[in-house]
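Morning!

As promised:
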Amino acid sequence: MTRFATLWHKELLRFFKVSVQTVAAPVLTALLYLVIFGHALEGRLQVYEGVRYTSFLVPGLVMMSVLQNAFANSSSSLIQSKITGNIVFVLLAPISYVEFFAGYVLAAAVRGVVVGAGVLLVTVWFVELRLQAPVWVLAFALLGAALLGTLGLIAGILSDKIDQLAAFQNFVIMPLTFLSGVFYSIRSLPPFWQRLSHANPFFYMVDGFRYGFFGVSDFPPAASLAIVAAFLLVVSFVNLALLNSGYKLRS
Amino acid sequence: MRALAGVNLAVREGEFFGLLGPNGAGKTTLINVIAGLARPDAGRASVMGADVAREYRRARRLLGVVPQELVFDPFFTVRETLRLQAGYYGLRRNDAWIDEVMHHLDLTAKADANMRSLSGGMKRRVLVAQALVHKPPVIVLDEPTAGVDVELRRGLWQFVRRLNRDGHSIVLTTHYLEEAEAHCQRIAMLKDGRIVALDTTRNLLGSFSGLELRVHLDRDSLPAGLPGRVLEADGGQFRLWLANHLELEAALARLREARATIREMEVHPPDLEEVFLRLTGRAS
């Protein structure tokens, strides 16, 4: 327990020590999105009945921040440790691959949730927001953060250089988050793009998370939660298998 | 590529053991296998009876490794680094020992300094301290003095010798042969992933009895009939390998006979470098 707790604590310290970069900056980014998109689209777009566009936008931005920051935390921490070589301190210690996995992923989840809470705290002053089913909000935030923390760890394991990690972030994570319905409801899309959106796991996270606020969603929230949980299981299994094999960590 | 082949080696408890070899001989690979950083395709390794793969937790607790590269985590201070490292080994409330280690390595004044602000030598000491936080009975030092100034080198050796006297087994890799000669009781020499010699330091030096005579003469060629073997001739400077002191006597007599003037003269007993070069087939 101490071994896992120490690794977790180390990962938390790592981002808390530079919280201007790791928490304040992403909160500001989300706020900018709200100001710009809210200003441009308020009154022109009615997504759910009785919900203003800016109110609709906020949960999406919160979830986007949760996901992107969870991914950024585990992936950048691991790649930095690999490049500077200090990953050796963890590899020399009697830490199991399960402890390794849990330490990195849970710290990433905390970073995601902290940034998400920060975005919510800052934006809630500007928009009217109801919280209809907080349990769903929490469930989707935690599962989503864990899922992206796991994906980040996988990306960190597979990448040898920062550029490779950036490619993963720019060509996989960014498009999937932007096309997940953060800024729009997929119901407004042509049928083909609607179907394609259902293949995007990020859609279920954003949609289910939003349900917790408005009690309305494009897809049944329980089914979304099941899909997200199943995806998390599969990705965790792949991640644990990679760690157990020592791939790119132990030669 | 095969980095190690047929290495069969047992370091005794409490021993100060040297692992020597040129770059690429497989020293670090061997250490990585013992530390669990590399997995061998075949064969096995154990630390005090604990198999490094099957009983990795026990094996790693018994082992402290000072890595060759000067690595550090720039997010933390010296004390944080050591506390975290102790935690990785499952140790909590280990501060008394951490303070003691820092004291012995002259790190106390830098305890709350960020790792980034330390000099290379200080970072090296922190690496040593990190390897000791869990009081391992076996300590591996991979090229610990590469790029380290003389004063720190001396302090480091004093500390490592003390650890050895206190019962810790020490495994040292180095290509500074004089260090191995000064500290190690037994030595294994590696070349191309194989052990080419494994014996006590004394026996290794003894098996290469003989001495080297270096003379600076007033002429460019040596008189005929000198005993021994010429290692090098450069202008008036010569290096001769002689089997023993009788041959030395004879060589000097021959030089006198030939009326050669000796401008300078030195006699060297064999050292590990000689042994090493001969064993690795690079003797001149």
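The two ends of chain A are 27 Å apart (CA to CA).

Hope this helps with the figure draft.
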